[in-house]
Amino acid sequence: VYVRDAGDAAALAAIERTLREAAGAAVRPLFVHADVCRDDLLVEIDASAGHPLEHLS
Questions:
Q1: Domains of the chain: which residue ranges?
Q2: Which pairing describes strands 32-33 and 43-44: parallel, antiparallel, or unpaired?
Q3: Three-state secondary structure call for residue 2
Q4: Going by DSSP bridges, is the β-strand pair 2-3/32-33 parallel, antiparallel, or unpaired?
Q5: For 16-57, what is each residue's pLDDT tens digit?
Q6: Whole-structure pTM over 0.90, yes or no?
């Protein structure tokens, strides 16, 4: 999660709460203070997900 204003504690808490509500409690976000692609964005999220492989016998 890239955040433009990392000093805004209330915004960080809201972002993390919303992310956990959407993706589940097991999500492990990493917050980075960085410039994002466009000036009109305050937050940008890059994500990947996976699941255990099934072994076929």
A1: 2-44
A2: unpaired
A3: strand
A4: parallel
A5: 999 889 988 888 888 887 777 677 888 888 888 777 777 776
A6: no
